[in-house]
Amino acid sequence: MPIISPGFHGRRPTDGKKLPPGQYETYDFPVLSTGPTPHVPLETWELAVVAEDGRRHTWDWAALQKLPMETPTVDLHCVTKWSKFDTEWRGVSLDVLLADVETAADFALVHSYGGYTTNLPLEDLLDGKAWIVHDYDGQELAPEHGGPARLLVPHLYLWKSAKWVRAIELRLDDEPGFWESAGYHNYGDPWQEQRYRGD
Prior knowledge:
By secondary structure, the protein is mainly beta. 7% of the residues lie in helices and 29% in strands. A hairpin with a 4-residue loop joins strand 4 and strand 5. The longest helix has 5 residues.
């Protein structure tokens, strides 16, 4: 049975910023996980993109660091109703990682160290909408927030931004991930309040 660790409370003013329906602003960075925090040594860390025909494109930590970096500042929206504005990250755009990958896939299933998975349409990873990030607020990303590297897809609820990412499986069909199989919405648009199946 998954264990969800609480770590947040309280409601604070939004300072005029726009929140998706049902959300409140927090200045903290709550930690929510489905199990123990994996600690992945950089010496053995690897990210793979696996095409639907089985071809693998891999990067170790040194190779990832040589790729062009971006510094997105984005708002986060968690399905548990907290939102955090103007978070600052550093990482590699998925446009860079997928540039040389030949695929006819329409979907992606993201795998994490520790066994977590989440699914989303491939188009939601492209066109400047998603990154593999390893720094947060000018510091190395802490393990409890997904370090050494996590997926960042800020236009969807935060469960889609898989912590401790290790592989992106490109698929012709849509395979539900961990929370999607447990009743969460398959897509998770915070502006449509797509929290659970049927929303």
